[in-house]
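Tutorial handout. Part one gives the primary structure; part two gives the three-dimensional structure as tokens.
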Amino acid sequence: MVEQIIMRSGANTLNGFNFDHIVPATGADFKEQVRSCIEQLQEFMHQEEDLHYLITQQTFFISANTRDQYEERSAAIRDQLQSLCGTSLPATSIVAQSPAGDLDVVLELICTKAVDEKKVTYKSFSGVDYTVIEYQGYKTLHCGGLMGTVEDSIAEASERAFETASSILDMEGLSIRNIIRQWNYIENIAIVEDGEDSSQNYQDFNDVRARYYDQVRFDQGYPAATGIGQDTGGVIIGFIAVSDADNISIKPIANPGQIDAHKYSEMVLEGNSEKKCTPKFERAKLISIGSRNYIYVSGTASILGEKTVHEGDVEKQTLTTIDNIKRLFSKENQERLGLNFDVDTIEFSHLRVYVKYKKDIPAVEKVCDAELNCKSSLFLESDVCRENLLVEIEGVFTV
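Part two.
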């Protein structure tokens, strides 16, 4: 499996999974901050042989208030990346979610350790960069930056993104059913405009996703996924897909305290689309390869059953969110999954924490620090998929 490895800015040593996201060490403006991140990225890519990692997927989180500013800043990032890497880039997404503090950009990496028998190839299709890893008889595909054009509606951008994803998967001998982890960034995700024919952006996205997902059979469960807002950019999709293999087992994980999102009633689906489709994802996904177990926790929020709880209280919503994450690994769930560990000893390789209002980030961070053990965490300002949700958390860890 491809490890999720996050680099710590300015770290003197690189030991195991003790990495963090890259933050600008210098820079008074956006371009300078990007240059600082790229320089650190270059250092990371040219380490000593025993610490040599290959980047499989990278996500830049940037501040951008308008589509014009987003396009301008995305171009600046790609120009600097190409000066470092040439035209062969790993899967890359640029997402308009403001980092915590006063930063205008942070960079998150997913990497794999370079070994002789592992083949890592950077490819491109229709302007989308993706990464293929072949190792021990199976294939892993990382893809990012799947999106529409400036003129597209949310539904049109979603259609374009899923069509390109399907084409790339097909070229690599895979299908949508092979996706194990997916990130869906949606502009103004929760807003429902006034009017008789109003729709919600998240619902429009879910309707398109359902059409593509319904074309295949997800016999190992839907992907673990996050549907989250972004300030601009329409729709952006990134994912990880894994081929079938004898040494790989993939299982969905349900939360006994939550209704599966793909089984929600129409009571919690927003907008007036003709046929409102449910969000097609699992609460978490277990990927077992040999004796190693990788657990991807989907974007999780303060929902019990299918209803939001603790409206207006960000601290209580954060605590409920964390409790929902821990309930995924109840004794009963572990027995069903063939696992045995103390949930209080989980050490996340990485957490992403999305907070609706930047002013609430310190309070959310305090609760997360007290309740969760993680090697790195990234706090971002972002709308959540319901107007009354203030925080959402996702993560990954190994057993």
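Part three, for discussion. The mean pLDDT is 90. The longest strand covers residues 53-62.
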